[in-house]
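The protein record quoted for completeness.
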Amino acid sequence: MRIIFCFLLALSVLFSSTIKEKTKNLEANKKSQEQLNKKLEDLAVEILNGEKALKEINSQIQDLNLQISKLESNAKVQNKELDNLANQNKELLKNRTLMENKLVSLIAKDFAYDLPIPQGYIESEESFIALEVLQGIDMMLNDEISKLSKDYDGLSKMIDNKQEQIKKINLSLKDYNEQVNKFNELKKKQLNVINKQKMDRDIYTKKLENLSAQQNEIRKTLNQLKIIEKQNSKTNAKDSKISSNDSQKIRQIGSSYQGSNVKKYTGKKTIAPLESFVVKQKFGNYVDPIYNIKIFNENVILRSKKSDATVKSVLDGKIVFAKDTGMLERVVIIEHSNGIHTIYAHLDKIAPTVKVGKNIKKGAVVGRIKDDLTFEVTQKNFHINPLELISLN
């Protein structure tokens, strides 16, 4: 029976530990997902703020370290002094108790010798001698009581003085302990910030890599469809701040900046591909503040205000591409008049009516998205800002 109980207890502890570990992992994944869903610029601001906070914490830790080092040597001396004072105080209190007992005894004796002469007492020579002896004893007792009282007062003052010293030392040690606790809290905070910075940097790097890879994938597709001609890369590595610990892919992004032929759209505005959205990523140059590399965003990322939202064609046109590309998920490219092409990437589903070669009307459903739509617009070998084409209200 005891063996079964021990087994069940061990199983319970193991199960509890597993649940705690899973809960911890879920919380970490949730935080990671929250950071992944943020705008690149917002995440960059968080990283820069985190670095600033970390510098401040490091400075505070350094200052506290100096304070603690000074207080620590004092604390050692004070702890030793505190022990000595405590022992001295203990001895003084013991002596005071002895004095108190002695005083009580002397006062009792003095009281006994001061008793009034009983009635019927007959005076004689012997009685006078006895009275003088008693008076002498009484004087001696009074002197001894007076001396003992003075000693008692002095001893009490010494005890009070020691108590005051002990109080001051305890206050000083309290300050030292508070500084140590503050230091430990700062170290804990520092570790949390370092861990968050590491997670944010990893996510940021991953987002940059994905952004570059996805744009390259779209360029490749547009080039294959002869919508956009292939462009040469421009070197942009001289100002990059990429450390040896950073990803090789980020190095490649930093060392090769591909600008785009851009023209301003001057035509009539049309409908947006989503009913309600916010702009998560803008069109144009983006100077990354973390690695100091330049990226040109050839598209915009629109975040839908509701999940599983429908994506609509912004103009009448003809479907020239509709495919699951893996990296860009499902992509639809539509050819319109005046040499305009619209690209809809990261679709969760492509509408069953969408077929390559088929005409599509403005406002017709292209597909659905979970959250984000990558939307790109070209016109005769030029990129145009998609937000210039669509209405934002």
In short: The first strand starts at residue 234 and ends at 235. Confidence is low (pLDDT under 50) at residues 22-26, 233-244. The CA atoms of residues 312 and 364 lie 5 Å apart.
